[in-house]
Amino acid sequence: MSIKLGEVPYKDRVQTGIEDDFMRQAVSSAQGRFRNGRLTQAAELGNWEDWRELGSEIRTHTLQNLDYYLKQLSDNVARRGGHVFFAETAEEANQYVKNIIKKKQAKKVVKAKSMVTEEIGLNKALEEVGAEVVESDLGEWILQLDEDPPSHIVTPALHKNRQQIRETFAKKKGYTGSDTPEEMAAFAREQLRQDFLAADVGVTGCNFAIAESGAVTLVTNEGNAEMVTSLPDTVISVMGMERIVPTWEEMEVLVGLLTRAAVGQKLTSYITAITGARLEGEIDGPEEFHLVVVDNGRSKILGTEFQSALHCIRCAACINACPVYRHIGGHAYNSIYPGPIGAVITPLLEGYDDHKELPYASTLCAACTEACPVKIPLHEHLIRHRQIIVEQEKKAPTAEKLMMKGFAKWSSSPAIYNLSAKMAKPALGPWTKDGMIENGPGPLKDWTGARDFYAPQGQSFRAWFKQRQKDGETS
Amino acid sequence: MTIENREEFLNKLASRLGRERRTEGVERPQWSVTPQEEVFKGMNQDELAEVLEKHCQVIHTTFKRTDRAGLTQVLRETIEGYEGKLIVTSNDPRHQEYGVAEFFEEAREQLDVHVWDPAAGKENQRIAEKADVGLVYSDITLAESGTVTLFNNKNNGRSISLLPKTFIAIIPKSTLVPRMTQAAQQIHRAQAQGEDCASYVSFISGPSNSADIEMNLIVGVHGPIKATYILVD
Questions:
Q1: pLDDT digits (tens, 9 = 90+) for A356-372
Q2: Beta strands A201-204; A234-240: pairing state
Q3: Rounded to 5, what percent of chain A is helix, strand, coil?
Q4: Using a CB-CB distance cutoff of 8 angstroms, which residues of chain B are in contact with residue A45?
Q5: How many structural domains compose chain B?
Q6: For residue A254, how many C-alpha atoms fall within 13 Å in the half-sphere facing its CB?
Q7: In this structure, what CATH number is given to the domain that contains residue B141?
Q8: Does the residue B25 lie in any domain?
Q9: Which of A23, A185, A215, B60 is surrounded by the fewest CB atoms within 10 Å?
Q10: Does residue A306 register a pLDDT over 60?
Q11: How many A-B residue pairs are in contact by the CB < 8 A criterion?
Q12: A185: Cβ contacts below 8 Å, ≥ 6 apart
C-alpha cells in the first residue's frame, strides 16, 4: 500500500461512502464521542488556548531547526547502541528494513500501529522477502485479516461492524465464538500473544522522538507497542522525519495534547520511551535497534507556505470535527490520511494529479482549524490548494471551467441576462412542483439529488424593485 | 553503530529552509505560555493522593490506601482477589524497606514468587508470561492521569508490568507529583547533566484497553486485564 488507496474515481468513492449506512452511523457516533472527549478535557484544563499556543510554538521551533534536532537525535541513538538510517524515499526505507530481515533470516515480524509504515507500504515489501507480518493493534489486525485499508487514523476499523469482524475471525482464524466485542478481543489477545512471543523482529512507528536522549516515544492503549519493543531481539522504529521534539519537556506537552485531542484521555494506558538497544544484563528490549528516518516527500513541504502542515501530531481531531468526513467516511479520500489534514498533506506528498479533488472535500467551515491542538490553519491551506489548482495547475474541475466561462459571457450582456432571468421559470416548468424542484435536469441533478431547489420566480430583483418604486411602497 | 545517509539528508533540509546547516547554538526559546506548570500547583501529597484516587475510577483501576504496617495485609487480599498463585516482581531494595520480602517468605506455601533475575535470561519472560500477577513499585506517580512511571532496568524487566494477567503497583506516597510535567523535568535535568535515561521508560495508566470494535471500550487487551494501585503512606 502507499498513500493512495486505489483507482476508483472521487465521485464514485463519495457515492459509496454516502450509501454506506452503517459506516455513516458509526462515523457520526465516533465523531461525537471523540469530540465530546476532547471538549471535556479542554474545558477541564480551563486554558486550552494556552495549551494550543504552546503546542504550536513547540512545533514551529522544532521544524525551523529540524536539521539540528535530527542530528542530535541520531547521534544519541548511535551513542545508545542503535543504528540510524536516513531514507529519502519509501523505496530506500523499505530496502533498508528488508536487508535487516534478510540478514536476521527473520520469519515473523510483529508490528505496532504506524501510519508511516502504511504510507511507505512496508508490509508488502517485507512479504516480498518471505517474512510473515502481523499487525498487533486490534483494529489493524482486523483490517489485515480482511485485507481492507484503514478509514481513520486513530480507530482504523471504524467502518466495520461486529458481525463483519466475527466473520473475518471465523474465516481467517477459525474463530467459533460470539460477536461480543469482549469475547473477540480475548480471542485476539490469545492469538497475538503467540505472535509476540514467536516474533524475530518488532516494527513500530514513532509518536515523538526525543532528540536530547535518542528516545522513541510510543503512545497506545492496548499495550501492543510495549510487546513489540520488549520481546523480539531486533526492533526497528520508522519515523516521519518531522516527528521529533527537543527534550522530554516538549514530549510531555505534546503527548498530553495528543491523547486529549485524539481520544479525550489525559494519557493513554501506555506511553513508552525506548532508547537504543537494551543495556548489559537487561532481558527485555532489543539487542539490536534501528531507527529509520523517512522523508518521502516531506522536505518538499519544508520552507513553503504549507510548512505548518508538518506540525501535525496525528491526533485526528480535525477528522473528528469535519462535517464532510462525517458523510463520506475515510475511504472516499483515497488516501491513508483522510479528513482535513489528509486533504492538505496528500496533494503535497503525492502531487495534485491524483488528489486534485481533495481540497474541495471541505465546506471551509474551519471546524478543523479550531479543533487542531497545534493550531495548523487547515482550512486556509485548503483554500490555498484550491487557488493553486485553478491558477497554476489549471486543474479546476471541467464543469467549473465551463460554468465560469459561460457565466462571464452571460453576465456581461444585459440583454441576455434579462432574457434568461425571464425564461428560467418557464424553462424549468416541467420539473417544478409547488415552487420547488425536487429532481432537476442536467447540472441541477447533483444539487437536487440530496435536497430541493427553489424554482426561479420569473422576475429579477431589479424588475421587482422597479415595480415596487412605481407602486409607491417605499416604507 | 552506524548512521547512514545523514549528511545529504540534513543538508537538503537546511537548503529547503533557506539557510546553512545548524549544528550548534540552537536553544529552545522561552515559550510565551507555560500552562503545564499551573496544573495542581502547590498541592500537598494528601491532596495529590485524592486526585489520584478519583482518577483511578476513570482508568478502571482499583485504588487502595494503607500505611507500612498495613501493606502486607492489603497486598495479600489483592493477590487473593486476583486468584494469584504465580507472582513475578522486580528485584527491588524496596521489598526489604516495605516488609514485602518478609511477606513473600511467610506466604511461601501459597505463593510462587519469582524475583526478576538477570542471570536467568529469557526464562524471566517465560515466567512473566505465565504469571497471574506482576508486582512493581512506582518510581514517579502522576496524580492527574493516574500514571505509574517505571525506569526499567536489568533488575526490573518491562515484562513484569506487561505480560501477567493482572498488575499491582505499590505507590510510595513520596513519589506523587501533579502530572507528567514533573517527571519529564526530572528526566530532562538528569539528561542535561549527562546522566542517560533508562533504556525503557514506561508511563502506565491502568490496565490495557481498546475501543477498536464498534467503539466499545474493552478493558484488558494485550497487557494486564486488571490493575490495582496500593498507595502507601
A1: 999 999 999 999 999 99
A2: parallel
A3: 55, 10, 35
A4: 35, 39
A5: 1
A6: 30
A7: 3.40.50.10420
A8: no
A9: B60
A10: yes
A11: 298
A12: A138, B210, B213, B218, B220, B221
